[in-house]
């Protein structure tokens, strides 16, 4: 694919913005961003200044730490309207956390990646803290990510595996192509995905994909817990609960889509 001028700078800026966003409300200093992005200090600082100029990143004047800016909130609100998820996704995550006692999540699909956007913890004292809002994985890595790739058709799933092959081999060597294809087949057979500690030992998860009215895979609901809380029999119970919540969320998306006004036909400008 031919390189487009400026794409490297844009990719690096987005890399810095994601690194800032992963800290949520904790905020992050320049040294940590340099480590997280693996970019040099002058480059990170220059990109931060550019992001700050557009309101995407802000800096605490006392601590000099960085956090996501107001423009991110504005764009997030617009994206929420576009996907029609909004409050309903928050409610679904909350119900799963309360009913299971474990941590529940909603992740969205970003082409060949999955990005966690919502998390709520249940009342169990045993929790896994691996997945946080802003965490990003290649499709197939993690329960929600696996649920998404398994819900794609074969051609799209293979495209995701191919595009992420180098990254997965480098960062997740256990996730070989053969292993991922076997996990996809099992997920399709069961109707929900299970991650038995393959990303981080001891951190297990169960998930189901969420589809838009068009059939497009837009995200996944997940329950994550420590290994001792997810034996086989409970995986099946939670799997059914998550699938039910996913179908409920999909029904909301269909209702929301039905209320949208029909696009007006454009008038012809040609002379009659």
TrEMBL record:
Q: Which GO terms describe its molecular function?
A: DNA binding; DNA-binding transcription factor activity
Residue ranges of every copy of the IclR-ED domain listed in the record: 71-255
So which domain of life are we looking at? Bacteria
Which is an annotated Pfam family here? HTH_IclR
Any one of the GO BP annotations = negative regulation of DNA-templated transcription
Residue intervals of the HTH iclR-type domain: 7-70
Q: Does the entry feature the keyword Ligase, yes or no?
A: no
Q: Does the keyword DNA-binding apply?
A: yes
Q: Which UniProt keywords apply?
A: DNA-binding, Transcription, Transcription regulation
Annotated InterPro entries: GAF-like_dom_sf, HTH_MetabolicPath_Reg, Tscrpt_reg_IclR_C, Tscrpt_reg_IclR_N, WH-like_DNA-bd_sf, WH_DNA-bd_sf
Record's PANTHER family?
HELIX-TURN-HELIX TRANSCRIPTIONAL REGULATOR, ICLR FAMILY (PTHR30136), TRANSCRIPTIONAL REGULATORY PROTEIN (PTHR30136:SF39)
Protein's UniProt name: Transcriptional regulator, IclR family
